Every structure is written in C-alpha cells, then in structure tokens.
From TrEMBL:
Assigned keywords, A-Z: Cell membrane, Membrane, Transmembrane, Transmembrane helix
Region annotation (Disordered) ranges: 192-211
Listed InterPro entries: MFS (IPR011701), MFS_Efflux_Transporters (IPR050189), MFS_trans_sf (IPR036259)
Gene3D superfamilies xrefs: MFS general substrate transporter like domains (1.20.1250.20)
The protein's name in its UniProt record: MFS transporter
Amino acid sequence: MSRTGQTGVVLRLGSTQTLAWASSYYLPALLAAPLAAELGIAVTHVFGAFTLALVISALVGPAAGRAIDRHGGRAVLLVTNLLFATGLAALGVAQAGWQVWAAWCVIGVAMGSGLYDAAFATLVRLYPVSARNAITGITLIAGFASTVGWPLTQWGLDTLGWRGTCLGWAALHLVIGLPLHSGLPRGRVEEAPPVRAESAPGAHADSGTPAQAPAGNGVAIVLAAVFAIAWFTSTAMAAHLPLLLQAQGLSTSTALGVAMLVGPAQVAGRLLEFGFLRRAHPLLSSRFATAGHPLGVLLLALGGPWGAWLFAVMHGMGNGILTIAKGTLPLVVFGATGYGERQGWLMAPARVSQAFAPLLFGLAMVHWGGRALWLTAGLGLLALALLQGLALHMARRDAVPATSPRPDAPA
C-alpha cells in the first residue's frame, strides 16, 4: 500500500479512536451527576462502575491483542463498535443501579479491545516496519478526544438529556465507527524484513525500525512498571489537578486555566516526538518524557504561580510523548511478532493503576494536601531510573557482538 494508503488508515483509526475515547473514558465526568440524580443512586456508584470497566479492560487486553495478532485488527475493531453501541445503549435505558454496572461491564470489554492498544496492534500488524510514525499520527488526532467529546456530551445533555446522549454515542459507533473500521485492510500491507536473531534494538537507535531482539521477562516487567507509573500519574492529574493547584495557593480561575493547558501541551509533545524525536530510539524519548512530571513539580515548588504554568507544560508534554512510547517502545524492544498480545499484558498493570489512581491520589491529598505531588514526582523518578537501567542493559548487550566474534562469522 502506498504512503497515501497508510495515511488513510491513520485518519480512519484516529477518527474512531477519538470516538471511542470520547464515548467511554471522558463520558463519566459530565454524565455521572445527572444519571445518578435520576436513578436515585450515589455519584460514587457511577464512578465505581467506571472503575470496574477499567479493570475489565485490563483483563480483556491480552486476549484482544492475541486476536489482532492472528486475525488482524479490522474484525476485532468492528466487534468493538458493536460492544460500545450495546453498552452505551444499555446505559441509556438503565432503570436501576445494577443495570448501570452491567452496562459499564460491557463498555469495559469494548475499552479493552478498542482503545489505543488495539489500534496500535492493528497498525503493527499492517505495517511492522513503519508503524512508529503511524502510531504517532493516531495519537495526534485522538489527542483531541476530550476537546471534541466533552462539548458534544454537554450539548447532548442540554438538548437530549443523559439518556439521549448515551443513545446518540451508541448510534455514532454504528453510523461512523463501523463504516470507518470496515474500510481497513484485511491483511498485512508491509512485510517485515528478515532480522538476525542476534541483532538488538540498540543497533538501530537512530531509527524506528523494529528489531527482533532477545528481550526477556525482566525487560517486560520493567516496561510494565514504567507504564503503570505513567498512567497512575496521568489519571491522578486528570482527576485532581484543579483542586491540587488550588491547594498550592492558586485561585480557582487560575487553577482551571493551568489545568486546561495540559491538553494542548500533550499535543505539542506528540508533535515534538513526530518532528525532532522521530529518528531517536524510543528509549531516549521515553526518558525525556518521564522526566517531564518530576521536573514540572520542581518548577512548581520553586516558581509559585508561574511555576504552575511550567508544570502544566512539562507534565502535558511528557504525558503526550509517553502515550506514543507505550506503543513504539515495546515494538522496538521486542519486535512485531506477537505484538498485540504482548501489549495487552504490558498494559494490564497500567490499566489497573489507572482505575484506582483517582481514589488513591485523592487519599494522598486528604493526608498531605498539595504535597501529594511529591508522591507522583517520586514515582516519576523511579520510572526514569528503571528506563535508565534498561538503556544501560541494552547498551551492554549490544556491545557484545561488536567485541566478540560470532560463531557463524567467517574465519
């Protein structure tokens, strides 16, 4: 397929990812209160059901990735649209609390098989050589999911009510999501080049070419821990950042303005990755991004109100780049074979930490107030240390073939 064809795939998946995120992850923020009021249940029940959906998505991820590895992303994503539509429609007609929980269980299965990890696995199966730029393209488009989703949800609440809003999102999965996914290629478009068993990703540090490197379980554990930390911090900030900034002494209006800067900063970080960092090894961009949140916390502590704006930029840019790194770093370290299932396992701890981040960080704020930021800063430094250790491990491993003869080397 031509580059134009790949661009079309990126536009399709970017659009459907925007739809999927807007109608699931970003839905409870506006929907929970009116839903709970009409059904006579606590708002915490709605968010509890959403937390359960995130846990279910973690359990579903490996199986969905395995299905994409075997059959391609087209079929899996088409089923995901049907699941989203079913879950959202069930939510829209719910009459009791247990039905809300049941609906979010269905949506959780859809999230586990239809959000970024599934889209990344689809791209890797289609384009095992050039998937990195395509992954970046998807995140650039879907980075505006909240920008598009929240106004649409609010418009729906104002004009259709919360039930009509849920049914409207369900309909969009059928009239937009299904046709876009049905146009995806059925089979692999690019052929992966033959790679020597002893080659390692460090040998291709200036490119995005995946290499079938003999990375073991220890490397997988390190990456899973890094992603779990990153998604804990990202979700905690998304849930608590305005109040957290007010605890730092900012006014309500200033805190909201600073919090709103995170979204554009994420897109800016992805543009930076697409431009200046696209030829760097993902380990380099991952370390750069992981340092963003701790550095931002330091600037906030030292700079007062001006430091808050710098914190939002550093945190947002780092989070934006890490969204790409979670797709590209495993591809470069492990290669394209079995990518989908492996990605499901690598991201399972991240989805669980994401599910409980609002609650756990909220408890930290109750006990420590604004100083709770030092918790996420410390976790960020731990993730940075893990990535630095991984980089040193890979550098030492890559140096072995260069200094010792291979058994098959000519005499």
